[in-house]
């Protein structure tokens, strides 16, 4: 059988002259091909997930280091304020102002970040996606 006929048959065309056995063989060939494609797709996605988890872990570690630096700078600032204003001269309002302008997010810096492969969820919404500003 010429290559072009086989190609057309793999695409589901020109099947009228084929016997049941030929159709079953074609079906088996397509199933095996599809299985190979799915295995390769899974390998590629698994590798991407591993790479993203590694990147996430590195970013997480960098975030921890940056928070350590922020805390060190805060400590140095507090010591400088004590030298400038004296230990009891900073009023409560100034102290709160200095605290709220710094980064004061409380969350677990040591919590692991893991990505997983999952099937997409179809969410139907009556309203179209609109970006809200402000």
Short structural description:
Pfam families: K-box. With 134 residues, the protein is an all-alpha fold.
* Outline: rod-shaped
Order of SSEs: HHH
Our Rg estimate from Cα atoms comes to 31 Å
Number of E-state strands: 0
Profile the largest sheet.
none
Which regions contain 5 or more consecutive residues with pLDDT less than 50? Answer: 95-107
Mean pLDDT: 77
Beta-strand residue fraction: under 5%
- The percent range for helix content is 55-70%
Q: With helices defined by DSSP (H or I, 4 residues minimum), what is the helix count?
A: 3
Structural class determined from secondary elements: mainly alpha
Q: Give the end-to-end Cα distance, rounded to a whole number of Å.
A: 66 Å
Descriptive account of the structure:
- The structure is a single chain.
- The termini are far apart.
- This protein has 3 helices and no strands.
- Helix content is 63%, strand content 0%.
What characteristics describe this protein?
about 130 residues; mainly alpha; about 0% strand
Give the topology.
Blueprint: H1 3-10, H2 20-85, H3 92-101
């Amino acid at each position: 059988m010429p290559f072009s006929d086989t190609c057309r048959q793999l695409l589901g065309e020109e099947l009228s002259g084929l016997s049941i056995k030929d159709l079953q063989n074609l079906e088996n060939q397509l199933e095996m091909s599809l299985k190979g494609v799915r295995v390769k797709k899974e390998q590629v996605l698994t590798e991407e997930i591993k790479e993203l988890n590694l990147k996430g872990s590195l970013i997480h570690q960098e975030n921890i280091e940056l928070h350590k630096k922020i805390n060190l700078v805060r400590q140095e600032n507090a010591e400088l304020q004590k030298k400038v204003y004296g230990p009891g001269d900073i009023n409560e309002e100034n102290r709160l102002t200095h605290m709220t302008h710094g980064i004061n997010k409380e969350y677990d810096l040591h919590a692991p970040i893991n990505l997983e492969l999952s099937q997409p969820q179809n969410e139907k919404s009556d309203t179209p996606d609109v970006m809200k500003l402000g």
